[in-house]
Amino acid sequence: DSNDDIEDVSLFDADDDVSRRSKKSKIRHPVASFFHLFFRVSAIVVYLLCELLTSSFIACMVTIILLLSCDFWAVKNVTGRLMVGLRWWNQVDDDGRSHWVFEARKVSAQGSKTSSEAESRIFWLGLITCPMIWVIFAFSALFSFKVKWLAVVVMGVVLQGANLYGYIRCKVGSRKNLTSMATNYLGKQFLRQ
């Protein structure tokens, strides 16, 4: 009975800070987070281990391109919307002109985000790191004269680079020119020094 009267009390609010941080960093969409990284990492792993596992270039190429395509679709249509509240798409009007549409989720009335910091970190880390790896693979294939692999690597750069570009445009605003934003940022950094 004496155990019922005992209550855990945090000392100097340290436990309260830890519990607040854990709520912010909690992954709300674990399946989306898994698939955000699964297709990307799987395509890279298959590319690296392909020549060791099989001698069929066609089987490797098809597997890698299927993984990259699944990644492109999943990131563009599902994980971006769930994990960070961003999405983009291309719309063709009646005149046949192409219009790119970039959307960001509106902040709720209370001013809180519905996506967690952990999911946001996972999303942006995967979105930025993997295209950089494919660019390294492209230079490697080019300089080692593996021309047949260059087509596969270019597909990786294009598909993952398109998602990266689309989500950067969503994040910074669709109306702003990315080149002018970069030069303004670099100019500010130069003036600070």
TrEMBL record:
It comes from the Eukaryota. The chain crosses the membrane at residues 30-49, 55-75, 122-143, 149-168. Belongs to the TVP23 family. The keyword Transmembrane applies. It comes from Fulmarus glacialis (Northern fulmar). This is Golgi apparatus membrane protein TVP23 homolog. It is a multi-pass membrane protein. One of its GO terms (cellular component) is Golgi membrane. Pfam families: DUF846. Its main location: membrane. The keyword Membrane applies. GO terms for biological process: protein secretion; vesicle-mediated transport. InterPro entries: TVP23-like (IPR008564). Keywords: Membrane, Transmembrane, Transmembrane helix. It is found in: Membrane. PANTHER family: GOLGI APPARATUS MEMBRANE PROTEIN TVP23 (PTHR13019), GOLGI APPARATUS MEMBRANE PROTEIN TVP23 HOMOLOG B (PTHR13019:SF9).
